[in-house]
Write a structure and sequence with these properties.
The protein is mostly beta strands. It contains no helices and 11 strands. The strands form 2 sheets. Strands 2, 4, 5, 6, 9, 10 and 11 form a 7-stranded mixed β-sheet that branches. A 4-stranded antiparallel β-sheet has the order 1-3-8-7, with no helix packed on it. A hairpin with a 5-residue loop joins β5 and β6.
Length: about 120
Amino acid sequence: QVQLVESGGGLVQAGGSLRLSCAASGKIFRINAMGWYRQAPGKQRELVATINNGGETNYADFVKGRFTISRDNAKNTMYLQMNSLKPEDTAVYYCNAQLINSAPSTYWGQGTQVTISL
């Protein structure tokens, strides 16, 4: 089995920063794409950013210029540096990983709460 564990969430004031981490462990051959998603109360889960195993990144428009996704393939770990945080960034942030030669091939973390106060 494969586990994804997020960490780094918390409560910060608007304008502040947080760094989320997602560590993958277990029976991993290789991880293809990884991504961060978020879900605010009463809303659907939405894509925040993705990164493939070549380092190519993709961002939702609402985080461009503020968030930076990165990964350390040797550690099977992904990060999300979040700057200039806004109250509307408040949500549970989930880590996602697409594995190669694995069944199932898609895994999710348990989520980490990010709360931005005024």
